[in-house]
Design brief:
This protein has one domain: Globins (Globin-like, Orthogonal Bundle), CATH 1.10.490. 63% of the residues lie in helices and 0% in strands. The model has no long low-confidence stretch (mean pLDDT 95).
């Protein structure tokens, strides 16, 4: 169970201006993105794959070679994450899920779920930096099913706020006790 409360989440939602309109926009985004998940993952994995310093976090620690089975498992979870971002209620279970994602990027649990011998941690700086590409690239996929540019904007901003909230929650394991 995450050491993060619903009250913490509610305050964070207010800080990022996330409200019921964003929940509705994300639900609609989920309907549009559902049939495009593999295409989205191709784009995102292509981005990561084009940067050796990012592929490094999916490589075998000893050989330095990327682990294709590990990448496949991460890709499957990333596809589920897209769906969950759009459809799951933002409740205590969702907070626990976000906390688990943070742990799996941190040395606390990285490599344990997949039983791999990769690098021990994904630095927090890259998780924060990924807010932009994960957000900026989603717009083109939202445009494919939206009825108007206003609808695209609503979904895009809901997505952006959600990703920001999630990365803030993922940061918990990286913070010094009491600093989060």
């Amino acid at each position: 169970m995450a050491p993060i409360s619903i009250d913490d989440l509610e305050k964070m939602k207010k800080a990022v201006l996330f409200d019921d309109n964003d929940v509705k926009a994300l639900k609609r985004a989920g309907e549009i993105l559902e049939g495009q998940i593999e295409e989205i993952l191709d784009l995102w994995h292509g981005f990561v794959g084009s940067h050796p310093h990012l592929v490094h976090y999916f490589a075998d620690k000893k050989s330095g070679q990327s682990d294709s089975e590990y990448l496949a498992r991460v890709r499957k979870r990333f596809g589920q994450w897209i769906k969950d971002t759009c459809t799951r209620p933002y409740d205590q279970d969702w907070i626990n899920y976000q906390y688990e994602i943070g742990l799996r990027h941190h040395r606390s649990k990285k490599n344990k779920v997949d039983s791999v011998d990769s690098v021990d941690i994904v630095p927090l700086r890259y998780m924060i930096c990924f807010i932009y590409p994960i957000t900026a690239t989603i717009r083109q996929f939202l445009e494919k099913g939206a009825e108007s540019s206003e609808e695209v904007d609503q979904m895009f901003h809901g997505w952006f706020k959600s990703v920001t909230l999630q990365v803030a929650l993922w940061s918990y394991p990286y913070a010094t006790q009491g600093d989060w």
